[in-house]
Amino acid sequence: MNAFIRATMHCTLAALATAQGQAAQDTKGGDHLPQSTAVYHAVDDRHPLHARLDDLASRGIDAVIKDRRYIHQRPELSNREFETSAYIAARARSLGLEVRKPIGRTGVVAVLRGAKPGPAVALRAELDALPYTEEVDLPFKSTVRATNPHGETVGVMHACGHDAHMAMLLGVAAAFMQIRDQLPGTILFIFQPGEEGPPPGEVDGAVQLINAGVLSGDPHPEVIFGAHFVTRLETGQIGYRVGDLLAGSDEIDIAVHGRQAVAETPWDGVDAIVVGSQIVLGLQSITSRQLDLTRSPAVLTVTEMHGGQYDSVAELLKMNVVLVWYGRDVRTDIINRVKRTATNIASSAGATADADVVAEMYAPSVYNDPNLTARMRPTLERVAGNRLLEIGPQTYSDDFAFYEEKIPGLFVLLGARAPGDEFFPNHSPKFHIDESGILVGVRTLAHLTLDYMLGAQAAR
After folding, report:
1. Residue 321's closest CA among 9, 1, 11?
2. Which of 153, 155, 170, 293 is the most exposed place for a label (fewest CB within 10 A)?
3. What pTM was computed for the model?
4. Could you say which DSSP state residue 288 is in?
5. Which residues are tagged catalytic?
6. CA count, 13 A, side-chain hemisphere, 256
């Protein structure tokens, strides 16, 4: 989930989005997306492979936990996941998978071909970690430090569960390798770099892999499944939603250009800090007074301001604005309003302002294909039982959405917080997951994959 998780935006936007109901869920923001149209027959809940898969997942969980802890101690920042990539490739080869790397900058793709004919299904995990110093006292705590894109030395930590996601996919692969002779289809395991947001001037990890042809080569997946740990849900809970699940997001960099003067004679200059402060206040009216939130919700937050020097009227102020939205028409509108507000307020004060969208930080909204979600809901019910939750839209984002622009997808949220534990959000230096939930993740992705294949096989 992108480096600025927007945790403080969650309640406001989710409540607004939920209030809009389920309207127009066959499109996203007016843009038509690939729809699942494959012929499918329901899968018998008593199919013998279900119990076999659960048994294999349970037997293999110790290895999954071991992988997770190894990766957790060795986190790497976005698009710099060289050691993580090498470890994943080595583990995938040890399981007998066909491995391709590097895909994009550090991506790994592993292929498992079943002995029987059937559809190809893609599963995705993320390689990268976050620039946080871990504050959780674990025997496998990260003490890694690295240089961020700004040249600063920072702590590095898996503060969003990506270590567990990678381990889960290895666990799914290990289980399926043992029933390969009965598997009616092919699985494409995608381990992508740069989900948290690439360094300036670089390309998002999902986009890298799509551009490299992972969805269009051999195998050619029909659908893609993804799962993400969140501490807002308790261990064992699975959250899903038809249509928009996660918001789209953008960042805008604004530079205010004033005129320098000494602090004692401010009338000789144009104070970029004062002008920037006026811009911050003006931006607040976009979502509170200008946008029709009954049509589509949005949130705008100024996250950073940098400028000024000793005993001087500031000549330059830089700020960062985070936008969260659902409809793409709303995205275009809000970006235009941010630019207009910044430039007009600056001009009125005798300053100038540049407002530039940070292209590499754009992510569309994660949209669960309605047909595919309906088809797979019985699978989720079987795995989660009464702990399956239909949830409202969430205000963070994930570049899994880029895959869904190419093929139908289903993305679910997995509970990571043990009942009674104190809540710390994803993207917190205190973030930690209840490892007993990892088995739920392995079973979820394994059963979704198997049932999709079995349903397609029955349709034949």
Report:
1. 9
2. 153
3. 0.84
4. I
5. 362, 435
6. 34
